[in-house]
Amino acid sequence: MKRLYEILNFNQGFVENKEFEKYQGTRYKDRKIVVITCMDARLVDLLPRALNIKDGNAKIIKDAGAIVLHPFGSIMRSIIVAVYELKADEVFVIGHHDCGMSVIDPDETINKMKERGISQEKLDTLESAGIDLQKWLHGFDSVEDSVRSSVKTVKHHPLLPENVPVHGLVIDPKTGKLDLIVDGYRES
Asked: For labelling, which of 6, 67, 83, 138 has a CA lying 20 to 30 Å from the CA of 156?
């Protein structure tokens, strides 16, 4: 069976058995934090447990590498919405050790695009429009430096209130241990 139909069949039983009831609640939880982290599957269960986040007590934004690349991209917009509309009052940027974005090779990724049918013409069009695919696809060399850079992008955003601390951490996906990179209470 195709994945979509498997999901829809499961969902029908989920709804019929009222399994959703244990997840109901308000969107304004006690812990008013927003977390930007990597989309790595190892963090799905580990990160909330390592942070003692329960029942959605954080707005979690996932992105390849936990990289806030563009000050007016969708990640930053989500942070702004979380602060102003969902009452978040602290921001946590949490990268992780052994992240795939630290070893991504933009040339290999572009070759994979071509193998899956993306034409050289499309790639050339993007390049001529000023999109540097090498830079856009490149992850980072140091997770700590990447977290610092993302914290800086968030903290210095013109629409983020100055009194919102922005913290930077790195989690070990094997143990859940957090390393503090930027203490948002001390650094501004």
From this structure: 138
Report the alpha-carbon distance of residue 34 to residue 40 in Å, rounded.
18
Whether 140 contacts 67, CB under 8 Å: yes
Residue that is written with structure tokens 């009452």 in the block: 87
Distance separating alpha carbons of residues 136 and 147, to the nearest angstrom: 17
| Cα gap 46→84, rounded to integer Å | 28
- pTM equals 0.86
Mapped onto helix, strand or coil, the DSSP state of residue 175 is coil
Domains recognised in the chain with CATH numbers:
25-102+141-188 (3.40.1050.10), 105-138 (no CATH)
Q: How far apart are CA 69 and CA 136, in angstroms?
A: 9
* Tokens of residue 30, six digits: 């006690």
